[in-house]
Amino acid sequence: MSAISSNTGDPPRGATRRAYRRLDFAWVGLVPFLAFTAFFLIGPVLYLVVGAFQNPNGDYTFANIVNLFSPQILRAYQLSLEISFASAVTGTVAGFLLAYAIVHGGLPKWIRPAVATFSGVASNFAGIPLAFAFIATLGRIGMVTSFLRETLGINIYAMGFNLFSFWGLTLTYLYFQLALMVLIITPAVDGLKSEWREAASMLGASSMQYWRKVALPVLMPSIMGCFLLLFANAFGTIATAYALTGSQLNIVPILLFAQIRGNVLYNPNLGYALAFGMIVITALSNVLYLVLRARAERWQR
Amino acid sequence: MKRSRINATAIVVVAALFFVLPLVATLLFSLSMKRGVWSLEAYRVVFADSRFVDALTYSLVVAIVTILLGALLVVPSAYWVRLRFPRLRPLFEFLSLLPLVIPPIVLVFGYIRFYNSSSILPLTASETGTNVLLVLGYVALSLPYMYRAVDTGMAAVDIRTLTEAAESLGAGRRTILMSVIFPNVRASVLSGAFITFAIVMGEFVFASLLNRDTFGPYLALIGQNRAYEPSALAFMAFLFTWTCMGMMQLFARRRPRRRRNRRPFASPSERPVA
To answer: Do A106 and A278 touch, CB atoms closer than 8 A?
Structure first.
């Protein structure tokens, strides 16, 4: 009886016997979901993880992990990490500034919901269409490129800009990164109470001191957490990069894509190790994000 | 105070330019296929391509099946966990968030290996099997959004009282789920459905690596071979995303409690509990 009431609160009167019988089979209701996650999330990923520690004959080995540190793969990881880092840093800074401006900037009331709604859309406007949009804007014959060249006489491609390069890709990623940052940091910026600022200035603190001693320390866990989320977000993305640069930029997801298509590493198990490395990086940043979010929530009560 | 407002205005203006310029440029670019005049030529070419229609139709079917299966999996599970196994809620939430941690390309790589033609369940060996795998993969991809939406929706209605009321009226499990629980979380399911729709319609990696001719691979193909059509497609995709997200927010905001009293089973939750 006690087991039942702890589960269902107050069981309907007179239903005790039925409730007992139901409880015995209650776990059956959990099976579909658990089976689905086992077969379509955990199982396949576990298969890759185990394969990463095996050689083609099925013997256990660390050789694949060691081979990840070969120059070609190491370069891919390095480039991936650099692009994710660059787009996460720019996204974090720009997104924070925008969020602060719409929350505390004293702007007209309609600005905030407008920016928030647009960010909701833009954070989901990724993948191939986003690449197309940036090609139409800043590609060699894009509208902005042509406008700058023909009207203002500035040829950005002659000045070294190239959309199909590291910084071009970073700028394109910034589109959804900035939007995502605004969405996830706004609650934390909201938690920044105006009383703190007033208290600080009454005690004679300058604006700079307020930021360095009050606002930033309070916001830091949130900002770092959001940064990690943006980082993982960029690290796993492939469609935008694929549509924009083809296989010009040798980032990890594109290398993995080529490996799945045509075994370009000539070693299936090395492919598993490549995937394993990706999981480790995204999992680490997500776990750190959760830790930092737990810390940040202390200030949002 | 005045200066901070000028700064804020500058930031918002720059951000607005960054957000809007690519859209305006895409629209203008898509209209300039004919030299010297604005025309809808690129859109005409896109719609005249039978592969476009085929890919779009296939993606639509996949998206609808994904949404139905996803709702069928998530609603009963979330309901059952909340009702009978509240202590397992963190586990289910964690499992539903896994697709955000595992990069999609890794997930589909796992599928290709796990379900290859020499495995116990050789889904990739046949056309039907691969279609099934694609749909189930999309169900997995949309799980975080669907589960979150439905679980939040269930938090807003008192499912325990509803269940007990229905039981005391003699309703069986299926009746409770279909006529009591489901109508009460319909708005949440719809809000999850629209984001699923947007994800499935634009998805590229799963479809490409499983060799399915959906909208995503079609976009990639056009992007490699054409100049103006891609921007027409991109602009339509943006409008499409906008519609889906708008609908999602519309349904996400609507509380089931505010609905008028139409279903007899829905009434107990709508009376304020003292």
So the answer is: no
